[in-house]
Amino acid sequence: MKSINSDQETEELREKIVEAAENRFLTYGYGKTTMAEIANDLNMSAANLYRYFQNKHDIAGSCAERCMSERNERLRVAVRQPHLSASQRLHVFALEAFRYNLEMAKDSPKINEIVDIVSSQKQELVKEKLESQISLIAEILALGNESEEFEIDDIISTAQSVYAALIIFDVPTFLSLYSKEEFESKAVNVVNLLLKGLTKH
């Protein structure tokens, strides 16, 4: 039976591995990073690295989970500001999701390689991301119903449709299509259009 200290040490080492790998992925790219290089950055053998992760895909998945967790927390804090109406929260959601992706693309231009790998190899993480975004939108819609801003019969189904309309602002792949100003303007316009359908008549 493992001790609590042993489990904690294992988790701490896993975190260090993920951090070292993330630094390499975002600097050199996923494809140009090897397990041996990650291990070398941590002064351990590649064989020892495989005790904690099966392969590079697994490490990339953990990097994505950490990034998603940070992103989700930022979105939650932004949309849960107490002075905002439900309509304002929906605007904040779209704009904050876009701005986060823009910052990531600017600070970490290799991020799309990890996105592509995770999308193809770790689809359960993609589904988890979708569910977390839809859940947050559902929270906004429920608040709108309570305040009588909105009149929605099926909150979950509506949240799924709202997210589908906003997905262009939530996926890094689309960032090259427009300028920052154009994207923000489009986000505002799309949310305004959605609000026409959500608002209580």
Architecture overview:
The protein contains nine helices and no strands. It folds into two domains: 1-53, Orthogonal Bundle (Arc Repressor Mutant, subunit A), CATH 1.10.10; 60-198, Tetracycline Repressor, domain 2. It is an all-alpha fold and 201 residues long.
Summary keywords:
201 residues, 74% helix, Arc Repressor Mutant, subunit A, 0% strand, mainly alpha, Tetracycline Repressor, domain 2, 2 domains, 9 helices
Shape: elongated
Could you tell me the radius of gyration in angstroms? 20 Å
By CATH, the topology of the largest domain is Tetracycline Repressor, domain 2
Q: From the helix content, strand content and strand pairing, which structural class follows?
A: mainly alpha
The total domain count is: 2
Total number of helices: 9
Helix content: over 70%
Give the total of beta strands.
Answer: 0
The CATH architecture of the largest domain would be Orthogonal Bundle
In CATH terms, the superfamily of the largest domain is Tetracycline Repressor, domain 2
Give the uncertain stretches in residue-range form: none
Mean pLDDT reading: 88
Into which percentage range does the β-strand content fall? under 5%
Helix and strand element order: HHHHHHHHH
> What is the CATH class of the largest domain?
Mainly Alpha
For the biggest sheet, the summary is:
none
What is the first-to-last residue Cα distance? 62 Å
Structural topology:
Elements: H1 4-28, H2 35-41, H3 46-49, H4 56-79, H5 86-107, H6 111-121, H7 123-146, H8 155-166, H9 180-198
Helix pairs in contact: 1-2, 1-4, 4-5, 4-6, 4-7, 5-7, 5-9, 7-8
